[in-house]
Amino acid sequence: MSPTPEPSPAPVPAPGLPQQDEEQRLRELGYRPVLARRMGGFGNFAISFSVISILSGCMTLYGFGLNTGGPAVMLWGWAGVGLFVLCVGLALAEVTSAYPTSGALYYMADRLGGRRWGWYTGWLNLLGLLGAIAGIDYGAALFTGAFASIQWGFVPTPGKTMLIFCAILLLHAVLNLFGVRLVSVLNSVSVWWHLAGVALIVGALAIVPDHHRSPSFVFTKFVNETGWDNPLYVAAIGLLLAQYTFSGYDASAHLSEETSHASVAASRGIVRAIWASWLAGFVLLAGLTFAIQDYDATRTTGTGVPPAQILLDGLGTDGASALLLVVIVAQLFCGNAEVAAASRMVFAFSRDGALPGSHLWRKVSSRTQTPVAAVWLSVVVACVLALPSLYSTTAYNAVTAINVIGITPAYAIPVFLRLRAGDRFRPGPWHLGRWSRPIGWIAVVWVACVTVLFCLPQASPVTADTMNYAAIALAVVLILASVWWYVARRSYGTPTTAAYGSDRDQADLAEGIV
């Protein structure tokens, strides 16, 4: 690794300073502003809340939870994982306040640890973001197929589901091309849609069904359909439901160059999105689990989506269809927000010369101030990642694991480097004070544990169909990143670690505006 560079001695703006001071701070970090700063604090919170999307993650992996630990692991796992993720979010928010750039995690790692730290963090973050698009939008396609099955007897084959998935990706690409203001408005609507949707689903399931499960069933029932005998192992891998859902909150950091007062607003956005999702998600999971009528029938439902079967059994066809539409719209909001976050990561990584064809992906539309090519690249790669779902019933779980295994380590690297830097790290206006080190170490240890955990096989016996491909995906990305390092290391560098200072920055970005 390169020697740890000194953090920028430039002054950090205080909360509440005018927007032009944020633009000056961005210049001090080495970049000329080219993106439109049209997102407020609520919009910044909303994008992370929308990407976490309890109506996407909880609902999509609910069937996984039914088989892998059952109700007890889903409910208590959610509570425990949420607490640890909040620690990760708090620690990451502190570093975000000091370095509010679209590059986010990799830029922080680069500044605190050197070029190679930034390089590998960037590739892990990019893998996680692109995997998240694939997982979210494919989940929306599954729920859309389940809705069509209930309404019209549609048979959701893998091929038909893939076509729905591609249509959703196209929709999200087009919406993102209209500019960040539309993205911000949609995310703000998404917050209220999610909260109202959870209230509607839980309220309907609490009132309408004649039969409900007992509290002892909901909070203590353990189910193991994985093929593994060790209950502790099964409970551990069952945490994937919660950990997968609690990802994507770095979106607030990736949109910081488009957020007013970003040094504070982006940090608050991360933390608020996590705790709001933590509380609402627990209510949703409890409401669904109390309403299960037939556990085995729900687990093996012909709709392919266990929550849809719970709604069908408890509310009938019309009620289930209406609430499925609420879930599908929430998932569409989620996927749209994730495309925005991933495209900003592609733009920023290309701006620093890290991707093949960087000169193309960093181009910004002069009309909308949106990285158009980066948006298209994000959805195309997400489509490719989901293609194995055509051939394997376990491929979707692999995609979600790829998301977790890519993005989760990337959260901890800047936090670890901030801890290693000690007093050389100059915090921004949003910081943890004396709690910085204990919360930071809790975050790092937790991420190390779950990174190992989610590389483990999830079903036994381990075959080509049941294998967890997350570890292979992680290895492939690290190998490719290492190979590409020797090709692109001369062109890659943030403004503080390569000759990407003001002259080169101005020229390259001027060329990139189209």
Automatic annotation (TrEMBL):
Residues 1-16 have a biased composition (Pro residues). It is a multi-pass membrane protein. It is found in: Membrane. Keywords: Membrane, Transmembrane, Transmembrane helix, Transport. The chain crosses the membrane at residues 42-64, 76-96, 117-141, 161-179, 191-212, 232-249, 270-292, 320-341, 372-391, 397-417, 438-460, 466-487. Residues 1-21 are annotated as: Disordered. It comes from the Bacteria. Coiled coil: none annotated. InterPro entries: AA/rel_permease1, Amino_acid_permease_CS. It holds the Pfam family AA_permease_2. This is Serine/threonine exchanger SteT.
